[in-house]
Amino acid sequence: MNCMQMDLPTQGARLYTYFLDSSPELRDSGRRPAVIVCPGGAYQFNSDREAEPIALAFCAQGVHACVLRYPCAPARFPTALCALAQAVAWVREHAEEYHVDPDRILVCGFSAGGHLAASLGVFWHQPFLAQASGISADLCRPNGMILCYPVITSDPAYAHMGSFENLLGPGADEAQRARVSLEKQVTDQTPPTFLWHTNADTGVPAENSLLFCLALRRAGVPLEAHFYSVGAHGLSLASEVTANAQGAGVQPECAGWFDLAAAWLKRLAPAGGK
Predict the structure, then answer these.
(1) Which of 70, 142, 189, 258 is the one with CA 20 to 30 A from 223?
(2) Which residues sit opposite 14 in a β-bridge?
């Protein structure tokens, strides 16, 4: 495995790689998909529970993985988004060197990291992102998204307001909040999406995912979604591997999400099926 860490052009952003070795003994090891993981943390910090354990789980499925440690508050939008665009572009530019399939580079995000991943999914082709990040749309386009209990909407009825305050600043106006309310930004250019949430999530209500699902459906974007009846916010793998320091975060009823996501990824056609 090729494990590296590197600073990205966006100040405070660092990419950690978990690239699997290629071997003539392994079928298809020369061009594997890659997933860039964005941990949650309300745009206040990057959660360790949603970082390396997720990358290693993907590696165990024969998938390359990277973890993006992105800038949080007081950094404001679109700083973290620029970092993710640069991360996707770096992996795509080095695809041949590290045996990555450049048409199967996905983003995976948890909670606020899900908002970040989904932001790239809806904004990758927007001129403002190319201007801010220095990355062209063709390099930063994700071929798919795996969103785990994501922050999506700024609607006060369902929003995780702390994430939006950290992302935009406490003085953000309605127009600024609407811009990053991602259910309003979905188009037919948004990549195929796998999504899961729990109905019992009181931190980021399931309506965030439901609203995004409806927007994807209207736009004709391929979608797979799973909603679990039990489980608090921030489950990560929902297993003992990612239990928090107090032992919470283990929910066997939800732990199957990862196998479902891995199976979906393997069915995903090159270039996101577009």
Answers:
(1) 70
(2) 7, 69
Q: How many domains does the chain have?
A: 1
State pLDDT tens for residues 234-245: 999 999 999 999
**Apex CA 95: angle with CA 236 and CA 68, to 5°?**
30
Structural domain of residue 155, as residue ranges? 2-273
For strands 14-19 and 144-148, give the pairing: unpaired
Six-digit token string for 76: 């404001």
In 126-233 the beta strands, taken as DSSP E runs, fall at: 144-148, 193-198, 223-228
Question: CATH number, domain at 106?
Answer: 3.40.50.1820
66: number of CA atoms within 13 Å, CB side? 32
pLDDT digits (tens, 9 = 90+) for 175-206: 999 999 999 999 999 999 999 999 999 999 99
The total number of residues shown for the chain amounts to 274
Report field, pTM of the whole predicted structure over 0.90: yes
Q: In what order do the strands lie in the sheet with 14-19?
A: 2-7, 14-19, 64-69, 32-38, 100-110, 144-148, 193-198, 223-228
CB within 8 Å of 126: residues ≥ 6 apart: none
> Beta-strand (E) ranges in the chain?
2-7, 14-19, 32-38, 64-69, 100-110, 144-148, 193-198, 223-228
Q: Tokens 């309506």 label which residue?
A: 207
Compute the distance between CA of residue 227 and CA of residue 23 in angstroms, rounded to an integer.
38
